Amino acid sequence: MTAETDPRAVMERAGIAETAISVFERQLADVRAGAGGLLRDADIDPYHAPSLDGAPADTSALRGTAMIRLNGGLGTSMGMEQAKSLLGVRDGLSFLDIIVRQVQTLRSTTGARLPLSFLHSFRTSADSLAALAHYPDLAVDDLPIELMQHRVPKLLADELVPVSWPDDHELEWCPPGHGDLYTVLHATGFLDQLAEQGFERVFVANSDNLGAVPDPGVAAWFADSGAPFAIEAVRRTPSDRKGGHFAIRKSDGRLILRETAQTPPDEQGDIDRHPYTSTNNLWFDVAATRRLLDENDGDLGLPVIINRKTVDPTDKQSPSVIQLETAMGAAVEVFEGATTVEVGRDRFIPVKTTDDLLVVRSDCYRLTDDFRLVQVPDEIPFVELAPCYKLIDDFDQRFPAGAPSLAEATSLVVRGDWTFGADVRVVGDAELGPDGGTVPDGAVLGA
User: Fold this and answer.
1) Was 397 annotated as part of a binding site?
2) What is the model's pTM?
């Protein structure tokens, strides 16, 4: 193996932390030994999550809580070239703006210091820090507002060696999935800083989930539970049929999170057998996590996920590669005594596509004075837009007057290329055909 094909040599030249290199080498060894495959229903049993009902509303638990938001995604599926969290959501505010203001409000109303840090990737750091500069009082003492996700080499699919792509050397690298959070915490000593300042627990959530407010009730539940690690779960709906879900592994009785990439295609949609999905809102105890990371040299041994791509995602003729990733929530099987808790859908408002974005921008939600998104109708409608709406610029052009009213809708399916006028209202089920055209101002669809 040459210096160009040895992953350790490639990563050392790039200045990657030793902990991250060791973790990557372990994952690569696992893949070479056959790991990263599918986990079938025959190997797992259904899991039923306990409910949060009756959790105390005491705000004191927030005083020992720190918060981390995962902010490494570029929003490439929407055609973006910057952090997705900078996308406008409501009232001229981005995801990032709303997250910061949620925390600032909680600080003022509860007296909690509630430090907020963001886990950035090498692609989202600069733009995000520029936006956060508008909030000079965000930092708490000397705790950093930025944690930097590591990067790892993409591997040629057949040879499992780092790919070389002279056309754009940046494309030779990829983020290692949000399971890298634990490696970052160990490599940077961030947990040591938190412990020194008296913080007992950490709440982690995705930046594109504005429902993930550091809620005092959930914080109090976790503090009282005695669990070292917990994930907020919600009941799956048809919209979650391709999402990861909790289960019990038959071989050892462990609670696990089976991710989408680990689920056979023919077993993706069974929301009755596996009724709970992860919100990716998780809580962990600082002392327990420090101890476990120290015992394992920063490697929790999370199961590796193989993500198959081409080295240039825009060129399907470029070499086939695999990206080795881990999922943050998979740590639920590592911590002894880890658990989940069922929460309401109000804590799970992810925006992964423009379908989701249309709903969040619509009157299905209102933004309160404390910067929480509150659901207006009893049920959120199902929205499916044609491919011409997939990219954010194309999407915005087709809704020049903003989102239609969806508060009375059950579903909206748009098959063709339609441009929506002002004050359009959807009632019940509505479908627009493939012919396309203009929806006039004031139109009522589905009535």
Assistant:
1) no
2) 0.93
